[in-house]
Amino acid sequence: MTSQHELALQRVVAQQLAPPRARTAREAVDALGALQAQDLESGLASVALRASRGSRSAVRALDDGDLVRSWPLRGTLHLVLATDLPWLIRLLAPRSIAAARARARQLGIDDALVARAADIAVGALTGTRGLVRASLYRRWHEAGVDTDGQRGYHLLWQLAQRGVVCLGPLDGGRQQRIVLLDEWVTHPRQLEGDEALAELAVRYFRGHGPATVRDLARWAGLTQTTARTATELAGPTLGRTTIDGTEHLGDPAIADLLAARRSAARGVLLLPGFDELILGYEDRSATVPASVAPHIAPGSNGMFLPTILSDGQVVGTWRRSRRGPLPSIETTMLAEVPPAVVAAITRAVAVRQEDVADPGDG
């Protein structure tokens, strides 16, 4: 039997947060299958925590086409390997599109309009390194396609779900260019049907486990039945353990990996908002105690604050502050911790403040 504390620490290790970490951004994302990235800056920071070469590696991977950002899981923005995006879209997008039909009708968007927007986008993007969102919206507007309100975003989302476009290289600062998926991803993995389902389950459980079938279903936007099928197709490649009477799956070597990395796994980490360690599960109580949970997403609007992790659990939140002449980090503690942990948090904050002041590799 594995305790909730051991579960939390094993997840820290599985998610590449306990050194030795992945060498590059590509390896870090490959290990997890996908990383939550509603906010690009937070997504890059999540990769940087898991890759020894930091956020520069993530930016290079986007610019070189190794990584892309799109809406493959639950219709939500994630960073994934470029070669994985086409099969993930084919596997998961139909359910997301069906779930968004009512919203499309509210916005006056039908299949004919999506097809027209796709034709305009293909004409504007073919043979280029893409356009930033405002420029693509302008092309649509000039062609008589209304992008006011949420219509532009929903049209972009629809094209991404249909495998027409994705978000690729950065345009100088923190804006990504919209590119044609077929032009940007020239050597996609060819996975279909049961093979794709099995790959999805293996990648999720090895990069997030121990986790449950319900966790997989929530992460990928699958039905419980399909998630169970995917888990069965993954077969004996996964290790299984029972925690509080529920079967959990993961890397069969995870207990041994934790034994070798326990000190690092118990250490202090400053996680960005929307980090995969927090959002990658239906049941996140092992990492986020019930007393803490309301404080990390206080607005009930889907926004998750950056968190302070110690010994595998969230003990506080942090944020960037613009008070004073230089940016700094402010913390809010949500649980009592011993003096040694307070000192470790102080050191971690000092390091992060240096990154805020000089964000070259944060």
Description:
There is one protein chain. The protein has three domains: 4-184, no CATH class; 193-256, Winged helix-like DNA-binding domain superfamily/Winged helix DNA-binding domain (Arc Repressor Mutant, subunit A, Orthogonal Bundle), CATH 1.10.10; 266-361, no CATH class. A hairpin with a 2-residue loop joins strand 6 (239-243) and strand 7 (246-250). The protein has a four-stranded antiparallel sheet. The two termini are 38 Å apart. The protein is of the alpha+beta class and 362 residues long. The chain has helices spanning 4-14, 25-32, 40-50, 54-64, 85-99, 101-106, 111-125, 133-142, 151-161, 181-184, 193-208, 213-220, 224-234, 254-265, 276-279, 293-296, 339-357; strands at residues 35-36, 67-73, 76-81, 165-170, 176-180, 239-243, 246-250, 268-271, 307-310, 313-321, 328-333. It is built from 17 helices and eleven strands.
Keywords:
about 350 residues, alpha+beta, Arc Repressor Mutant, subunit A, 3 domains, four-stranded antiparallel β-sheet, three-stranded antiparallel β-sheet, 17 helices, disordered C terminus
